[in-house]
């Protein structure tokens, strides 16, 4: 532990914000700032751009009561729609979703290893689906649990583009206590263990805050890898 030089206590911190260092918000919930370098972000953006084209195009997910989500989503490995996973996107065009690539399994393993400082946990992680969400300046995501998976394996979240407020709550309900953390381009967030079924959401995206060098001209991209536990 180093003692900051007087006057440099806020080094690396946004004005008035929390320092950009690895942080455990709750047991099993870890934020790793700046985990993806710029080339890795660019490669992910390029891959997501392809998946957004098809075989199942990115869309605003239809909700059972007739509304649509403000976020746009495309899935790989398994297709998620409220509130189940299927192999074909029957609420979009009936097509089978793109395969979950081996390189993304590897990325998920490195993410869990890094977040938990535990190579065994990382090595045993085999995600088989990812939800790829795109947020324009108007998109939000309400507090929810990721609970359609039949597995307690961690969720690995990668963010690219515009900065957002990620609200990470408790496992009981949507209300307080929760912690707001800024997710910026390249940030990793892993939630597993006792935090796996915590409520979380995205109440705010800061338009124009991302660096176009990441490959996105605007908006925010988020990838959440999961283990469905389905055959
Ligand atoms: O965009 C995010 O950071 C979170 C996405 C999320 O919670 C989800 O897709 O279930
Ligand atoms: Fe979620």
UniProtKB/TrEMBL annotation:
Q: Which organism is it from?
A: Streptomyces ramulosus
Q: What is this protein called?
A: Alpha-ketoglutarate-dependent dioxygenase AlkB family protein
Domain Fe2OG dioxygenase, by residue range, is 126-229
Question: What is a single molecular function from GO for this protein?
Answer: dioxygenase activity
Which cofactors go with this protein? Fe(2+)
Record keywords: Dioxygenase, Iron, Metal-binding, Oxidoreductase
InterPro entries documented for this protein: Alkb, AlkB-like, AlkB-like_sf, Oxoglu/Fe-dep_dioxygenase_dom
């Amino acid at each position: 532990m180093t003692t900051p030089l007087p006057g440099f206590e806020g080094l690396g911190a946004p004005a008035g914000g929390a320092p950009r260092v690895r942080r455990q918000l709750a047991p099993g919930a870890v934020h790793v700032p700046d985990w993806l370098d710029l080339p890795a972000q660019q490669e992910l953006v390029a891959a997501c751009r392809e998946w957004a084209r098809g075989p199942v195009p990115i869309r605003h997910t239809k909700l059972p009561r007739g509304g649509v989500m403000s976020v746009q989503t495309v899935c790989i490995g398994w297709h998620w729609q409220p509130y189940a996973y299927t192999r074909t996107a029957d609420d979009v065009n009936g097509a089978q979703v793109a395969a979950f690539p081996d390189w993304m399994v590897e990325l998920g393993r490195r993410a869990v290893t890094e977040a938990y400082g535990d190579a065994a946990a990382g090595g045993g992680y085999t995600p088989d689906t990812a939800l790829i969400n795109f947020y324009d300046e108007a998109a939000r995501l309400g507090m929810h649990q990721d609970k359609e998976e039949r597995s307690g394996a961690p969720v690995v979240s990668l963010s690219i583009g515009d900065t957002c407020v990620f609200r990470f709550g408790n496992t009981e309900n949507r209300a307080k206590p929760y912690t707001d953390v800024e997710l910026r381009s390249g940030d990793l967030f892993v939630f597993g263990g006792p935090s796996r079924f915590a409520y979380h959401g995205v109440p705010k995206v800061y338009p124009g805050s991302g660096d176009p060098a990441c490959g996105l001209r605007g908006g925010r991209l988020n990838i959440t890898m999961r283990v469905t536990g389905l055959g």
